[in-house]
Amino acid sequence: MSGSTARFDEFETVDWIHDGAKERRRQTEPQRHTEPRHQLLLRAYNAIESWVVVTLVGVLIGINTAIISIATEWLSDAKLGVCRSSWWLNEKFCCWEHKAGECTSWSTWDHAMGTDTVFLRYMAFVALGTVFATTCAWLVRVYAPLAAGSGLPEIKAILGGFVLRGFMGFSTLVMKSVGLALAVGSGLSVGKEGPAVHMGCCVGNVVSRNFARYRRSAARQREIVSAAAAAGVAVAFGAPVGGVMFSLEDLSSRFPRKTLWRSFFCALIATVSLQAMDPFRTGKLVMFQAAYDRDWHVFELVFFVIIGVFGGAYGGMCIRLNLKVAAFRKKHLAKWAVAEVAVLAAATTAVTYVNSYTREDMGELLSYLLQECKEGSKGWNNMCDASQASKVAWSLAAATVIRAVGTVLAYGCKVPCGIFVPSMAIGASFGRLVGTLAQMLHRAHPSWHMFAQCAPDTPCITPATYAFLGAAAAMCGVTKVTVSVVVIMYELTGALNFLVPTVIVVMIARIVGDMVVEGGISEQLILLNGLPFLDDMEDEVLDVPVAALMCRVYDVHVVREQGMVADEVRRIVTTDVRGFPVVDDVGRVTGYVGCRALARAVADAGIDQSATIAFDQSVHRAGVLQLSALVDSSPVTVRPQTSAETVIEIFRKLGPRVILVTSEDDGQLEGLVTRKDILRHVRSQH
Predict the structure, then answer these.
(1) Cβ 242 vs Cβ 234: under 8 Å
(2) Which has the least CB within 10 A, 265, 271, 316, 567?
(3) How many of the other CB atoms lie within 10 Å of CB of 329?
(4) Is the Cβ–Cβ distance between 530 and 164 less than 8 Å?
(5) Exposed / middle / buried, residue 38 (Cβ in 10 Å: 0-12, 13-18, 19+)
(6) Calpha distance 77→566 (Å, rounded)
(7) Has residue 103 got a pLDDT over 90?
(8) How far apart, in whole angstroms, are the C-alpha atoms of residue 519 and residue 539?
């Protein structure tokens, strides 16, 4: 594992122990002063409030996703032409009442200008795609820089116990939504499914902060953000169960049963809201839903293994190459973010227009690749025409390479961008290619022994199912997520008979991908960008005592129980630390006090600089400001010889912001250690 600590200072650490204690006090305090007959109503209100918040979050996520889907479809089609009768309609709705090939309302740009020139169509496609992407990059840079990227690495850090101010704010939500439609509609090799998680978390944060109970408690807010993350994945793939599984498997560091239940409910509400909006007017939650009624044969396992190996190899190489691109971008292109996006969009659209498979929006392309061939139909782009099989195979191979290169270059640029659907499109293209080649082999040699299982009057090989498996393999290869990928793919298709092949290709993709690079794209970006995340240390062996990692006592600001004056306290609360150990006159630890609470108490007291402040509850003298109520008298402490691995487990399971290190003999303060100290030490060793 390698990585930096560049962005550690942007994140504040949440003290889960302190936060939980405050929340318990807030819950019991009103009940003490409430009549018994009203306590039942108070408990009922507290129970209902959480479900109201979850419901509001789910509804808003579903509506927001539907609006983005509609806008993305219109922008994608706008690069190709315009609806003469109603410019605000995309091609599908413009030609809703017409049969294929008979629509006169929709015009390509050259026809709209009264000519019939392929070059004009090409230039319009490139120019509009570049304008959309450049506008997106400019808006993000000016109004919400935190809206760039997928947001998944930061969400993982936040759910792991850190706070990044503004990352889930309203302005970020607005620009993420607007920018995502522009970025995907521009034709860049990015998807909207990863950023859907970030947008879902933004909705959860914005809604929950309007309720005092969640605004004051980081632990309760984490429940809502976890549920919103699950809902974001659910609406992205039309898979509520898969969304919950993804949040559990890849995003959340802590996922108790209460959070699981609320996440499922939020995902359900979000998908129902999206279904009610029906943005595609097909009854489908996502454009690329499909259904399969044919079974698979044992001999096809050979082809499935090939698809699984490709998924893992693609995922591993994509991660490695994308990290190199990201490092180059940080070093050389940081000042030219908008220009980089403009050049990237121009190059991408110029190349993708040439290939009919890459010219299409990736969601629409997936819907074609995952569709079974109907008997007697040539299918979209002649994919089902046996006489065109060789041409289709070459086009699919070219599309796989073009999209793979485009995804490596585009993912991580300064626009909202995801990698799920681009990877699925790459995997589906390769899977359809393998299925087409297998079908060609069967047609050429139907008497081979390996094809003995094939029934004589029915199609033996279904290339669409190979595309389905390829999409699953590539998605697993780049994210290193397994169980939730299987569940998502099952919910997309309902193909229970292909559950075993899906598990096989996903497991092979995971094994091969881990051989190329450890961890998924999010974990690697956490390390590259220097984000604090404790759970990425599960495989680390730290054979050192905590004394080797701690901040020594002579570098620590401390608060004395007695004898401090207001001027001393005012000076130390202006430092960038979050709290101070409280010690007695011989240096023994008696507690811990938070910096913000201390600063607020001193400011509210309005005392002069020479006034005495005491943190010992036994001191009751006139003219002394008594602040012992602010002191946590039982902070987490360890001995200097305690192993670093034990300290990591304490941080992971209990969640304190800081652990004090005291001497074994008399409890004197010897230093302290934070989660960031542990991470800094580990990353400095690699």
Answers:
(1) yes
(2) 567
(3) 18
(4) no
(5) exposed
(6) 66
(7) no
(8) 11
| Separation CA 34–CA 520 (nearest Å) | 51
pTM of the shown model:
0.87
For the stretch 117-128, pLDDT in tens is: 889 999 999 999
Tokens of 409: 């270059």
Render the burial of 335-351: b for 16+ CB within 10 Å, e for the rest: eebbebbbebbbebbbb
- The pair of structure tokens assigned to 170 is 């309203």
Tokens representing 164? 């990044």
Digit-coded pLDDT (tens) for 164-207: 888 999 999 999 999 999 999 999 999 888 899 999 999 999 99
Using CA atoms, how far apart are residues 502 and 510, in angstroms rounded to an integer?
12
pLDDT higher than threshold 50 for residue 142: yes
Q: Which band of pLDDT confidence, cut at 50, 70 and 90, is reported for residue 2?
A: very low
- Length of the chain counted residue by residue: 686
Distance CA(528)–CA(411), nearest Å, equals 14
Angle between helix 499-516 and 463-479 (nearest 10): 40
Task: Show the tokens assigned to 315.
Answer: 């995922």
Query: Rounded to whole angstroms, how far apart are CA atoms 375 and 384?
Result: 9
Report the alpha-carbon distance of residue 147 to residue 150 in Å, rounded.
8
Q: Please, are residues 321 and 408 in contact by the beta-carbon 8 Å criterion?
A: yes
Q: Are 235 and 488 in contact (CB under 8 A)?
A: no
The better pLDDT of the pair 313, 448 is held by 313
What tokens were used for 629? Answer: 């109520």
pLDDT at 64: 94
User: Which pLDDT does position 38 carry in this prediction?
Assistant: 63
Distances in Å between the Cα of 595 and the Cα atoms of 156, 242, 397, 559 are 26, 42, 60, 11
